């Protein structure tokens, strides 16, 4: 984990509120979310379905506005340019089927008009980092779901963004592949040093991956807690059987009223 040289957090959310308006009606999706996130953290956002996790991610991505509170990203040491500095990973890999894996990974660099040769080199390095170096010229249909999701993680990193937003990236994968992808993501996070926000329904997944876990309660989203997760490093799957891990998951179940 890289620490920020400044005392100012990388992300500052203060009393964030979001109202959806449709058909003359209003729906309060996020009522009051306050949290600070330092650079280099992997923060899991966990909470029940419909509690506003994706909405919060979309606000951070600049895809949705907010109706109250403040959202600030960046600090004097690490300035932040919204269109340039965000990488996104969704539940589905959303690869373009007519483009090779390498060309899919290159897409954000192309859209941003980054230098071609350097981007290709970086894309190849990223494919190696996610274990797909031999699939650069393959097409998405030739890859398994887990491999496609690894390609989409490489794509989210190709333009070297400062913030990666992940919305249930492993939700569509089978249980074993999901565990393998958790280990992969852990390694990629350590290697890249990026700030990552990771939305999940999975309490175990949230604790296993997060350096911090933000717990949101049911709609409208409110912060129930923001926990620091202190588990032995490097984390391996066996940590899930430890008492410490069990205590964190129990605490989150209790916060969600699911004891
Ligand atoms: N574009 C929209 N217009 C109106 N309501 C919306 C819109 N997007 C989301 N909502 C509502 O806002 C609430 C929060 O949705 P959101 O997708 O943020 O929740 P979530 O916690 O990510 O859910 P899930 O875990 O099931 O994906 C839900 O009740 C949803 O119906």
From TrEMBL:
<feature type="domain" description="ABC transporter">
    <location>
        <begin position="11"/>
        <end position="243"/>
    </location>
</feature>
<comment type="similarity">
    <text>Belongs to the ABC transporter superfamily.</text>
</comment>
<dbReference type="GO" id="GO:0005524">
    <property type="term" value="F:ATP binding"/>
</dbReference>
<dbReference type="InterPro" id="IPR003439">
    <property type="entry name" value="ABC_transporter-like_ATP-bd"/>
</dbReference>
<dbReference type="Pfam" id="PF00005">
    <property type="entry name" value="ABC_tran"/>
</dbReference>
<protein>
    <submittedName>
        <fullName>ABC transporter ATP-binding protein</fullName>
    </submittedName>
</protein>
<keyword id="KW-0067">ATP-binding</keyword>
<dbReference type="InterPro" id="IPR003593">
    <property type="entry name" value="AAA+_ATPase"/>
</dbReference>
<dbReference type="InterPro" id="IPR050166">
    <property type="entry name" value="ABC_transporter_ATP-bind"/>
</dbReference>
<keyword id="KW-0813">Transport</keyword>
<dbReference type="GO" id="GO:0016887">
    <property type="term" value="F:ATP hydrolysis activity"/>
</dbReference>
<dbReference type="InterPro" id="IPR017871">
    <property type="entry name" value="ABC_transporter-like_CS"/>
</dbReference>
<keyword id="KW-0547">Nucleotide-binding</keyword>
<dbReference type="InterPro" id="IPR027417">
    <property type="entry name" value="P-loop_NTPase"/>
</dbReference>
């Amino acid at each position: 984990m890289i620490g920020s040289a400044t005392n100012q957090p990388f992300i500052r959310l203060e009393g964030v509120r979001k109202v959806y308006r449709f058909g003359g009606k209003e729906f309060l999706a996020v009522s009051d979310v306050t949290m600070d996130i330092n650079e280099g953290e992997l923060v899991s956002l966990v909470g029940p379905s419909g509690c506003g996790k994706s909405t919060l991610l979309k606000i951070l991505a600049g895809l949705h506005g907010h109706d109250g509170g403040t959202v600030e990203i960046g600090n004097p040491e690490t300035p932040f340019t919204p269109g340039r500095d965000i990488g996104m990973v969704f539940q589905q890999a959303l690869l373009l089927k007519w483009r090779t894996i390498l060309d899919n990974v290159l897409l954000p660099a192309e859209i941003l008009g980054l230098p071609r040769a350097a981007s290709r080199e970086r894309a190849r390095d990223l494919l190696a980092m996610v274990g797909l170096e031999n699939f650069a010229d393959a097409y998405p249909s030739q890859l398994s779901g887990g491999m496609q999701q690894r390609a989409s993680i490489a794509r989210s990193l190709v333009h070297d963004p400062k913030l990666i937003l992940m919305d249930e990236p492993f939700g569509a994968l089978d249980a074993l592949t999901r565990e393998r992808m958790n280990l992969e993501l852990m390694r990629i996070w350590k290697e890249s040093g990026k700030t990552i926000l990771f939305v999940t329904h999975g309490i175990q997944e949230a604790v296993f991956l997060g350096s911090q876990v933000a717990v949101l309660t049911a709609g409208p989203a409110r912060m129930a807690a923001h926990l620091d997760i202190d588990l032995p490093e490097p984390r391996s799957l066996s940590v899930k059987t430890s008492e410490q891990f069990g205590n964190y998951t129990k605490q989150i179940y209790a916060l969600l009223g699911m004891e």
